[in-house]
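Late entry, 6-O-phosphono-alpha-D-fructofuranose complex.
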Amino acid sequence: MKGYKITTLNEYIIRRQADYPYAKGELTRLLYNIGVAAKVVTKKVNKAGLVDILGNIGNVNVQGEDVMKLDVFANESFISSMKASGECCGIASEENQEIVTFDDGLSRDANYIMCVDPLDGSSNIDVNVSIGTIFSIYRRISPRGSKAEAADFMQAGNKQVAAGYVIYGSSTMLVYTTGNGVAGFTLDPSIGEFCLSNHNIKTPEKGKIYSINEGNYSHFPEGIKKFIKYCQESDPDTKRPYTSRYIGSLVADFHRNLLKGGIFLYPPTLKAPQGKLRLIYECNPISFISEQAGGKSVTGEERVLDIVPQDLHQRIPFYTGSKNMVEKVEQFLGES
Ligand code: P6P
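Prediction complete; structure with ligand written out below:
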């Protein structure tokens, strides 16, 4: 009887390691530990409503344990799994104002750093909407054997070695790229393994879904207002009007558009004049994946992956997804 043939995340990473003759298993171990942390977070996310970890820090739960907010838990999980890998010398996290450096000998000699949003969209947890972890991996530029330095985290997105996200939804999926295409893995809880479910994700060039918080319409740049109207006009040739879909959770909105085609837009708004989304641990990893899947990612002025960060938590306007839709946004912004 034929066995259930699966390709686990670990088998896939090792098999693809052959793509990198210089790879000595370091990135493999790093990606493996990201998978472990994702499983740990999945367990907590799936029980969030039950073990009162939705509360704020400082409460004590029925077991007398300090209540830890889910995003703090996720942050601790990814930081400790990266430290345990021995392949990461430091982390920039959405949850930490400054970089976190690992001072033990093994980590100081490590070759990689990670930028991570450990639980993006965490305000959606209480209403059971999908949330996600977003991560970027870079080779350090500071000398091995020393502590990670701020400059290690100020590299342009085009220097990423790997990037990915975990979406905690109806199932938990891990989607990542190392620059040779995009692969998706679905967690099979019955065996505790991420199993290959999307071998080579390509996003449709002609998308028909637009994702934007139209509540900010009155403050959008003119070009964005024109694009929204363009999406809503009837035109059978270009299959318009397009469909509006907005979950309010970046990973969930991006993942749907990646698979079905579409564009995610977060323009400058009154509350966020530079845009809301953060460059180094949201826009760069998502852009690496988007481009690897045949999509495009821009700020309206430039390609996201070419930006040299000025600040750890820098925000940018963000337009990413199907190439034809992103180029239409650029056209309208250029005209305005
Ligand atoms: P708004 C979640 O808070 C988040 O950072 C992203 O996941 C999401 O795309 C965006 O903010 C939603 O922002 O202003 O539309 O609620």
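Residues 209-335 form a domain with the D-Maltodextrin-Binding Protein; domain 2 fold (CATH 3.40.190.80). Will revisit in the morning.
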